[in-house]
Amino acid sequence: MSRRHLVLDDDAVMNAINDSDFGDDCDEDENWVLPGEELDSSKTRRNTFCRPLNTLKIILQKTYSKNSHYTNIYYQTTNNEVLKNPITASEVKKFFGVNGILGCVKFPRIKMAWFQRFKLPYIADALTRDRFCLIRTNLHIVEKAAVQAQDKTQNRLWLVQPVIDMVRKRCLELPRNHGTYSIDEQMVPFLGKCPVKQYVPGKPRPVGLKTFVITSSKGLIMDFEIYQGNTTPFHETTLGLGPCIVLRLISTLSKGSFIFFDRYFTTIPLMEKLTAEQMDRTGTLMTNKFKGYSFTKDSQMKRGDNEEVVNAARNGSTCLGTQPVDNVQRWDKLTKSYVTVPCPNLIKKYNENTGGVDFSDQMMETYRSWHISRKWPVKVFDMSLINAWYEYREASLLNKQKPMDFLDFKLTVSDYLLGGTRKRQRDPTDNLADMPETSYYKRATIPTMVKRLDGYNHWPICDTLKAPR
Length: 469
Hints:
Layout: H1 10-19, H2 52-59, H3 64-79, H4 89-104, H5 121-126, H6 129-138, H7 149-154, H8 161-172, E1 180-189, E2 197-199, E3 207-216, E4 221-226, H9 241-249, E5 258-261, H10 268-276, E6 280-283, E7 326-332, E8 337-343, H11 345-353, H12 356-366, H13 380-398, H14 406-417, H15 449-452
Parallel strand pairs: 1-5, 5-6
Antiparallel strand pairs: 1-3, 2-3, 3-4, 7-8
């Protein structure tokens, strides 16, 4: 894959996106609209939003020049000398592109990507190893001297707040027409020094930054809030931590939306508050939270049994009940087979719509920026790519076009950040999903001449096979 000369100016970069032929599955069309918006019937239905770099146009902001400027200032104040070759905005773009590719192609050590024997030429030619490490060590998003002491006290994330605001701004611009949403906590894995680092036992990534996220039922992130203790900007804290998180995240949703969350957030006062806010909700609740009613113990109930309590104000769901009851297949450990179990409608809908955050986590874990670094905001780049891929896939399916998978999408975006080719030549080996799978049964190798003429009688052996080939 060849590489063209990189563009240093931000305006020229955006012009290069417009002229780019990435994602040439669809034709050029200047009249594209965002998914969810109405398209004028007089215009063509071909929406160039299904091109991955048109999706990237909405995510990227003109911040690379500021990042390079603040990085040079930090290096100067830390080392008491001016950097001989200042870091440029183009190199910051390449830095994020290298991180994107290294999330897909993993090395035991990150510097192995530049080793003579194992190096990736596309990375090594775009950015040298020492330059990459220099940017990773000194990358800064704000100028420390310009931040007021009061802002540092009120916001523990002041050092990276512009990145958080940039990603959250794009999340808030997404249309709120999905209908069903799920709320859960998400971990940004980080083992370095950070004032808001948390340890959450039971999580696959227990150490890192705890983020409360609201997504659509399919995994599109609509809003998020990084937990930073008592300085977290919650508007209402009288109901407790869990309820105030829910009220903070649903503030941008329309009336009548369906919200699903687990027992970490569910309380009876929260249910009453959401009823007043005209929000339909469904959440799990511990039995000891109910007053005036005692449920049957789990040991006295059989698989498939359920109890329903209906109350105008104190119920776990305002939109669903047990009826209609559907039959589902579940694995039985005793009989070691699938058995038919009655499933209430409430449980069925909860299982279908509450896993949006888990879907987003699963996508991020596939090709996450894995390497250890003190610059944890680089990992927020993964969240942006997940949302961009969801939008790109939705637009592609809307236009009846086959979308590329997340691996191809992330490599295409990283390719652009590294200054990729203007016109990408399609290589049949690039699309891993279209490659033929290897057959499980392999043809036996032909005996060598030495084996055939060794003097032994190699007579065939007869055997009885149940399924001979």
